[in-house]
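User: I would dearly like some help making sense of a protein record. I have put the entry right below:
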Amino acid sequence: MSNPRKANMANHSGEVNSKSSSGFPPVVLNERILSSMSRRSVAAHPWHDLEIGPGAPSVFNCVVEIGKGSKVKYELDKTSGLIKVDRVLYSSVVYPHNYGFIPRTICEDSDPMDVLILMQEPVLPGSFLRARAIGLMPMIDQGERDDKIIAVCADDPEFRHYKDIKEIPPHRLAEIRRFFEDYKKNENKKVDVEDFLPAEAAIEAIKYSMDLYASYIVESLRQ
């Protein structure tokens, strides 16, 4: 008489052996996985491939380059799309808020539009989030205009209700101003920060940088 238990064990053993010698089922590589392994595949570029978002220019996606509280100055490597270490700040200051750029924008200095994002927590470099423009910080860096958008994280419950920079506590704005005035002093570089402008000015600046980027793309395609 056959032993049902032994028969079941035999069947189970045969099933395992039919899967693989290691006992694990064979891996099926679908087209998506194969595509990601292809040497011809190109990594997405955060400046050009990430959409700015349907709510732009008032609400937009932005890429974080530098986390709140960091003394390391990271920046976008425009060729590779990676976030690189530019330098460690010479002064004993840290970034007061997350700092990054707005994709699919460009300014006269050939860089994407800069943005300082007010929110509760630091964000890892290379991450992107939704932000709302609340103001513009006009700035002159070594004689060249280098304006910054001031924004809040649209998905942070502590900051998302702010609509204009005049709603931000004056002390917080003073901290932001002082940081940018001081962070290059020990490099003997002069930075002048002008009076903060309202949300309308920020939205107008973003719209202009979006239009400039579109013109840049058209011109690049013609070459």
In short: The beta strands are 59-66, 72-76, 83-88, 98-102, 113-118, 128-137, 139-141, 144-145, 148-153, 191-193. Residues 4-20, 32-36 have pLDDT under 50 and may be disordered. Residues 199-222 form the longest helix (24 residues).
